[in-house]
What does this fold into?
Amino acid sequence: MIMNRWLFPVGGLLLLLIACQFPVNLGQPLAPETVQGINLVTVAPNASPTHTPFQPVANTATVTLTFTPTPTSTPTQTPTVTLTSTPTVTNTPESMPSVLVGAGDISICNQDGDNHTSELLASIPGSIYTIGDNSNDRGEPQQYADCFNYSWGRYMDRLFPVPGNHDYAYNGGASYFDYFGSRAGEYGKGYYSYEVGDWHIIAINSVINEGEGSEQMQWLKADLASHPNLCSLAYWHYPRWSSGGEGNMDEMAPVIQVLYDHGVEVVLSAHDHIYERFAPQDPAGQLDLEGGIREFIVGTGGASHQGFGVIKPNSEVRDNTSFGVLKFNLFPEGYSWVFIPVRGDTFSDSGSDYCH
It folds into this structure.
């Protein structure tokens, strides 16, 4: 600090004036601050805010020693303060992903696996997919009403189900369609599509005919043609590829071909009561990192655990010890995933990738 003194005559008196000068650098921006975990960056006048786009992180599979795994974090855009009288933090789509979460092979009466997985959903916002065998008994009316209804059925307004073979076992799927109503798509068909954020989501009924020339295949081609989204995901019960006991389902090959031709990123299936992640593949099952479809088997909804059969090519991660749900964060140009196990189970898997 610099002090200057001056004496001035005022009315016969000498007035002492002391001026204090503080060095101030007006061109230097203020240091960043942190408010409730958000980095606030002061933007200098005439400066343009910059951002970091979505970028994939390394895919990892881990066994943790706690109930809640730590998901692999994904870089997001750094929020900036807008130059207004009241600064506000602005977020971009990269920092606010849409959420899609779920599993298949869910409910068996007098067992509690589905109760534990449904507890996970209570703390996860977003849309919930089910990948068939919602009732892993026989699909009888009371099995939906007395069992599934008190676990995953609590989130009916967020559910987007597809049926499995057990859902059709009692009366050809009538109980399934009666229970889920409009949530299951058109009665008796069970295939439909919807949007989650910037993503197009396709729900397929693999229990009925989905082969070339079928009504469902004609619908699928038309649906994909009318939704040219950059990012798309599809799910159904029977897996095209699986290292579980049921193994590969060749009847799903035509569906995979159509999805591949339209650039779909991800497919989800169940049926085998395991978790498995495949590297991106073409319809022939060959590794295709540029344009392939990444398949997940998520038969972990709570019904039971099953063993593995022949390990299939391009299988990257497998587990048959943990119930849990697979959560996707869906960004406009990519996605990340994390498998979240129930309390007491330890397996987890996470990663991310761009859309083609």
Observations:
- The radius of gyration is 28 Å.
- Residues 1-52, 63-94 have pLDDT under 50 and may be disordered.
- The chain is about 10% helix and 30% strand.
